[in-house]
Amino acid sequence: MLPEPMRNLNTSNSTKKWWVMAAVAIGVFLSTIDGSIVNIALPTLARELRAPFAAVQWVVLTYLLVLVTLMMVAGRLADVYGKKSLYTAGFVIFTIGSLACGLATSVVYLVLARVVQGVGASLLMALGAAIVTEIFPPHERGKAMGLIGMMVSIGLVSGPTLGGVILSAFSWHAIFFVNLPLGVVGTTLVLAVVPSGAPPARQLFDLRGALLLFFALLCFLLAITLGPRASFTSWRVLALGLVAVIAFVAFVRTELSVAHPLVDLGMFRNSTLSTNVVTGSLTFVASSGLVFLLPFFLQNVQGRSPREAGLLMITAPLMVGIISPVSGWLSDRMGTRPLTVIGLAMLVFAYGLISTLTVHTSTLGYIGRTVWVGLGMGIFQSPNNSAIMGCVPRERLGVASGLLSLTRTLGQTMGVALMGALWAALVHRFDATHTLAATLAPVSAQLVALRWVARAISVLVCLALALALASWQQARQHSQPGV
């Protein structure tokens, strides 16, 4: 039998909002964990599907490409046609895609099924923050954003761990079948507890803008994904980058000329929104680049086992999951600006500490450094997200929610590609033996390269901190509240 809040939708809003949060939390968790749980299964997939490793990698890349390119479109569709129906569709499509992935018999079918799964995940990830913002009052928005941040962290932490447990006990099909019960529960919850809301004001969907943005993002992501493999100066990568720029310029021209744009560019005249979007992007570029490189330090430089390295990598995201709800709760009481500045300052300090890693750094020494990264991200993320969602009118919440998710995922993709390429280039510069593969270079070259990347990341976050401080100072001069 359904719980009372689900059977009686006239229950107090105080109770109902937590059931809505539960529905959104399941969606955020599923869409996040499926971006990482497959990574640990790639060797198994290559072996059992008898496919080359380069082909199996597209099982991961396809999901991410679909997810990122459709987020803004999903957000706008929700503003035009309603959030509940689109979020329900997201659960249904994701569940069907998970079933198709589990039943796949070849890598081609698996990649196609991941496309379906990615479409559903784009709806879930893009709309969660918008639904929560509507149901929670403004003075609790930070707490709600903190809880969403916690679910993202749980998804990131548990993906590789859960995937390893499942693979040790079952076949690879089970890593997709495990989504089915959660998908059914999530669909049921959304139908039962998420309010339909007032019908959206009549608006037209900007199909041309949606296609141009999709094409621009797709070409850009392919360029930065293929760049580290084929060289950023190869004609294919340069051509993709040029097409991405042309498509993006055409998208901006379209948005400025249509009555109902996909993205209202006027939103970015709000300095708070613009600053927080940029600083959010920079922090995700920084953190994801570091997360990508630290396993090489732990295994190649220090010689730790994959199991030990995996356990140590939990430190930062676990701290983010613990701190995000607390930071969100605090931002509801003291404003978002002070906490975003404190979080960014802590990240600058944290990446400075990372640049002091050595071959002989102990386990406690490693944890003592990376815990500051998680602490800084945890303090920064929830207030930053709350500030963005508080800057937009109600009829644009879907687009703002999609923008949040796009900022995170695009930043993560860019961080892995750009910081990975920088590290490889530095390894080759410091490698006196001129080894072709960066991961096979001498330990000293790999370590020095990591230190310089950490310093570059610290400078990047310093830029984000300077922007946040300038925005805060401007707000104080105009006697604006802390947002």
| Silhouette | globular
Helical run tally: 19
Question: What would you give as the CATH superfamily of the largest domain?
Answer: MFS general substrate transporter like domains
Category by helix and strand content = mainly alpha
Distance between the termini: 42 Å
Q: Biggest β-sheet, characterized?
A: none
CATH topology of the largest domain: Growth Hormone, Chain: A
CATH architecture of the largest domain: Up-down Bundle
The amount of helix comes to over 70%
Given this structure, which CATH class of the largest domain is correct?
Mainly Alpha
Radius of gyration: 22 Å
Briefly, what is this?
By secondary structure, the protein is an all-alpha fold. Helices cover 78% and strands 0% of the residues.
Index terms:
mainly alpha, Growth Hormone, Chain: A, single chain, 3 domains, disordered N terminus, 483 residues
Explain how this protein is built.
By secondary structure, this protein is mainly alpha-helical. It is 78% helix and 0% strand. The protein has helices at residues 4-7, 13-33, 42-48, 53-56, 58-81, 83-103, 107-135, 141-169, 174-177, 179-193, 207-230, 235-257, 271-301, 306-312, 315-334, 336-354, 363-389, 397-430, 443-477. The longest helix has 35 residues, at 443-477.
